[in-house]
Description:
By secondary structure, this protein is mainly alpha-helical. Helix content is about 50%, strand content about 0%. It has helices spanning about 5-15, 25-35, 40-50, 55-60. The chain is elongated and about 40 Å long.
Amino acid sequence: xxxxxxxxxxxxxxxxxxxxxxxxxxxxQVLIGEFxxxxxxxDAMNVRSGASLEQRARDLGCSPQDFPEYWDEDADxxxxxxxxxxxx
Length: 88
């Protein structure tokens, strides 16, 4: 990767860490090399690999309910997920 591209990726991340989610694997490796295992970078890697919300939460040390994907669009609270389904 050209140094100017690496510089651009790093500077974009400094301005807005959510740009990690737009990066490909090679670009994420540049960010890891520069910033280490920052939460947005690790989560972006998990998203690219198709990790579940539960896995993403475990890797970041938070609750799955912390992710907006768990919130009901019409509610003010997280969607309640059932850990176990009872048939009776």
